Amino acid sequence: MLSLNRISKNYKIGTFGGKDFTAVRDVSFELAEGEVVSLIGESGSGKTTVGKMILKLIDISSGSIVLDGVDVSTVKGKDVKGYYRQVQGVFQDPFSSYNPIFKADRVFSLIRVEYFPEMARSEWDDKVEAAVRAVTLDPGQVLNKYPHQLSGGQLQRLLVARALLLDLKVLVADEIISMLDASTRIDVLNLLADLKSRGMGILFITHDLSLGNYISEKTVILRHGVIVEMGATEKVFGNPTHPYTRMLISSVPQLHKKWAQIESELAAPIAGRGGCLFHEAYPLAGRTADSKDDPTLAKIEDNHFVGCFELESEKTARVA
Amino acid sequence: MRRYFGRKLLTYAITFFIAATIDWLIPRLMPGDPIAGMMQRTGGGSTLSPEASAAMVQYYTNLFGLNRPMWEQYLGFWTSLFHGDLGLSIFGHGRAVTDTIMAAVPYTLGLLIPAILLSYWLGNSFGAVAARRKWLDNSILPIGYLLTATPYMWLGLMLAYIVGFTFRWFPLSGGYGFNLEPALTWLFISDLIAHWFMPFFSLFLVMLGGWAIGMRNMIIYELESDYSRYLEALGAPQRLVRKYAFRNAMLPQITGLALQLGVIVAGALVTEIVFSYPGIGQLVFNAIKSEDYFLLQGIFLFIIIGVLAANFIVDIVYVIVDPRTRVAMRGGTA
Amino acid sequence: MSLQVNDLKVYYRTLAGDVKALDGATFSIADGEIMGLAGESGCGKSTLGNSLIRLDGRMKYVGGSVTLDGAEMPIWDKQAMVPFRFREVSVVPQYAMSAMNPTRKIGVMIGELVESRGLPYKQIKVELGRRIDVVGLTQDVLKRYPIELSGGMKQRMVMVISTLLNPSLLIADEITSALDVSTQRAVAETLVSFRDHGFVKSMMVITHDISILYQISDSILIMYAGKLAEKAATSRIIQSPMHPYTQMLVASLPEVGVRYVDKKLTGIPGSPPSLLTPPTGCRFRARCPLAYAKCAEEPPFVEVEPDHSVACWKVPGPNA
Amino acid sequence: MTSVNLPSDSAGNTVTAPETQTDAVAAPSKKSQHEVLYFALRSKKFIFAVAVLGFLVLLAIFGPIIDSNDPLAQTLGVNTPPSTDPGYWFGTTTFGEDVFAQFVNGLRATFFVGLLGGGIASLIGMSIGFIAGYKGGWVDELLNMVTNVFLVIPTLALLLVISSYLQRSWPEARGVFFESIFVGVTAWPWAARAIRAQTFSLRSRDFIDLAKLSGRRGLKIIVFEIAPNMSSYLMLTFILLFGNAILIAASLDFIGLGPTSGMSLGLMMFNAVSWAALLLGTWWWFVPPGLGIMATVGALYVMNVGLDEIFNPKLREL
């Protein structure tokens, strides 16, 4: 349904420096209907940039994003609205997502003004109520309130409900639960997982591996704008192969396993080498990283790809 | 760093270019014919000697010569500008505008520089002190607001009236006594200072209020900042917390100085007029009265150059004082 | 017994009235103990942490006592607290990234801070250098400005500064929440090493992330709506919690390995009560599946087994 | 509504409170308005400033009606000190003009310059600030350059040259109206800068992205999403520009470039100095105009601080 083909994003940075900065490089993956793909990365990995490129909030420097055969970057002017009918986003900070001086349900009114100006008031109200109920909220409790009168969890769910008012195919959920309390975040996460049954494709962007692991079918691990490992979630987590993936998994604080134990359970990692973006953080490599070449993603098993030079020799298929 | 200053210099160059062009354009854009008016008056020759008058007529013909195409006039304007030739002054009895201005500049700078530096230093100190105690805050703040809201010339007038007219402590007008010739004698210097004091003091007072308020607001903001909270959490004495807050609050004040320069110069001009102090302001006043456009345009360019230079100095000072800009310019390591 | 807190009450003054953010806390931290303090946002955990070192302008001491190493701390008196700060009790604040004066070189700032507390900088310099090594920084950080350090470096530097005078108690307030998983682990492990090196005797680690506490703390104190809910050894809290709130909280946390398709986790329905007018009786009553008539009375926070205290009528204990 | 408490409409406080004109979709926050009202009524600074401005406005409106003397008519006794006789309340000038009549008429001109000049400056500053801050990129760079150029040009010097030429070639332009326009066109740069910075920080907020995802673009986002959030800030900006315009105009008048017909406070001081009021000791000629300007601008500044404390919870005392 949605496919990213070698997309990259370059920025000019520095008020004084004028340097080039590549936030995302050659990222390719696909998102199918009724599928949750989690895009996992630490700060600066470019995960949010990928999400914003899909949402057309920033331009793509190179590569293409294709939705049902249509190149998204060619969608211009009035057609953008049509695109947003199918693709929507929810962001990290629920309080920053609402204009603080307006009531929270203004996010719905905006959709009505822009997309359903013809619809009768009562019909629209029914539609909103249905959407609010679909995200397990009580319309009487949440409508007609100011953002500061609602909890973070309620606000995020309202944003999901807002997206449901449209004929949504793809939802980009960028860190949408990382600012919520532990007691409510899992419910919002479950809500996302339930949306799959409506045939929606969800890009779940997160830095939290356990959350990605919990809801997604497919996992993409991003580091410094480059995919280092991706594949079926159970394979990436069951057989983490790239040294970076391993490092991440061994750093996740777990509830029933101490760090030392997790580390000992992971078998000896493969060695990296010069040119790999992970090199400088990975002492086993021992070579200088002056090459801009990235290792290509190698297929190490069905539905599991890893970007590491050590694996290139034995790769069976080249992706991207 | 080079890029930063390069950018700044570019802005200043463009500013100067635009200002100079405006300066050249204004007389040509204005309805009516200013030259005709000027010729009419200079032709009368009441204030000028015949030779000077002839020289000026010649000059006008050259500069405004409408027989020449516009671009040539414009180019000629820049050429003479680079030669420091700003024309001749009617008010200066045919003297070169540049010379007339240069004679007035020391007086204006003599007012401005001490007034700016002293008010900046004292005002910031007052502001910092005000932020410390409630009663000080309640007394310094209203005074500060009144001072900044006072028109420069009015404070000058009030000072002149009270100190000069009523008590006769200081002379009311001029740069030095009519009966004196400039010389390096004690008599002359003391007279110079006596004439200097009131215009200086009135400029100083108005500015003082602005700095005090700015610093007070800044420092309150800094005292709420995270590094202040951390210092307090570690039991650092108020003395240290305030010292840090003061240092950090100084930085935006430097930028404030740059932003205020135009206003300050304007304040100096009107203050000089009040005291008939022989600086640029008085020159402007006379130029307007005698409709001496060359002089006025020359002064305009001169003020622009002065303000641009001062801005550049402030830019340099800021980079020296704020380590953050310095680090950012080095490219940073973070 | 290092820290002993007795019925401590600290309120927040607001326009609408006092917010009873900390409404009676009684607990202790033993020498060498790392105690985790966890709960939802707004439960009063940061208020508790702050009140032990510095009440900010809007906080109001209402009652109770705090004893550190046998000496009572006058937490209501800003000035009288000064001798305790830094030397006896210290803090690594939530805002560690911006805690250092941006216009002073770090070494100079430390020198001025230490001397202002009556210690010659020379005397402390060797130890300072040693500790910079311990946290894995290089000596030249002292000659740098804060802006020249990365987020993780700043965090570690602040940890070094805060513990320089070997305080008895260190309060670490949400110091890992803004960090990436990899740095999070390093910072958390540094905390433990500080205790092991004897830089601090005991520690209070405030966080909303219970899995971090599982990794590093000896005991965990769970707060709910300004009250203490449960305190016990870490393993007890994670494996066999007694308070229904703790049980539901722990059960709602996804872990690597737990997947939506296999096991759907659930959150805690409802949201915490307003602390402006907190309900009488057990404050968790409205969200508690076990609530019954008796919960209209406030349950005491009592020790139900050695080193395990709970505030719940349903928990069999001495006064059940 | 905030306007209920503000008798001083002409001081500009209620002219265009942006909340009242936002799109129909949204109702402004009732709660926050109540809060503003609550603090406004308790802010001594605000009430004091409103009282002073209110008094001056009334004086400007009704003064010329009460004292119907022509401010330029030379019909009274010369250099008479203030007394309770009609026509001599503030004394007379060297030419036998009524100083009180000059003062109240000048006050009118002062408020006019503040309103129009400050209004024009606000309009330009806000437009440039909003566009630069929202668009970013090369648009920002360009507008920034323009702003910086205007920022470093000493505007008084520029106005000097322009108005002195106008004096001869287009005397009709030498009135309060054109003076206000000139002042407005040159006084905006710092406002543009400040608004740009505010816009810049607002535009990265998620609700802007969400508005885009709702199909909104450009101007609509500035007007309906960003501006309402800055309404208090915009109001403060206008108040400051109002005061600045008055001060700049007074300087121009004082240098001798004021209105050739009519009266202004700056012109009064110019006349007083030109005709040696200082040497004659006729203090009543130059004290009222300066005091009038100081009171007006001072009250505006104090109102600014008061409002800032009302809007900004951080500055409020508990």
Question: What does this entry look like structurally?
Answer:
The complex is a heterotetramer of chains A (320), B (334), C (320) and D (318). By secondary structure, chain B is mainly alpha-helical. Helix content of chain B is 79%, strand content 0%. Chain B has a domain at 100-329: Orthogonal Bundle (MetI-like fold). Chain B has helices at residues 2-29, 34-44, 50-64, 70-82, 97-130, 134-149, 152-166, 186-223, 226-233, 238-275, 280-289, 293-321, 323-330. The radius of gyration of chain B is 24 Å and the shape is flat. Chain C is α/β, with parallel strands linked by helices and 320 residues long. In chain D, α3 (99-135) runs parallel beside α6 and α11 runs antiparallel to α13. The model of chain D is unreliable at 1-31 (pLDDT under 50). The interface between B and D is large, with 64 and 56 residues.
Quick overview:
Chain A is an alpha/beta fold and 320 residues long.
Instruction: Give the averaged pLDDT of chain B, no decimals.
Output: 81
CATH level-two architecture of the domain at 100-329 in chain B: Orthogonal Bundle
Q: What percent strand of chain D?
A: under 5%
At the fold tier of CATH, the topology name of chain D is MetI-like fold
Structural class of chain B: mainly alpha
DSSP, total strands of chain B: 0
Q: Categorize the overall geometry of chain D.
A: globular
Q: Helix and strand succession of chain D?
A: HHHHHHHHHHHHH
Oligomer: heterotetramer
* Total helical elements of chain D: 13
Summarize the main sheet of chain D. Answer: none
Q: Which homologous superfamily in CATH is the superfamily of chain D?
A: MetI-like
Helix content of chain B: over 70%
Structural class of chain D: mainly alpha
- The CATH superfamily title of the domain at 100-329 in chain B: MetI-like
Total count of domains of chain D:
1
Beta-strand fraction estimate of chain B: under 5%
CATH class of the domain at 100-329 in chain B: Mainly Alpha
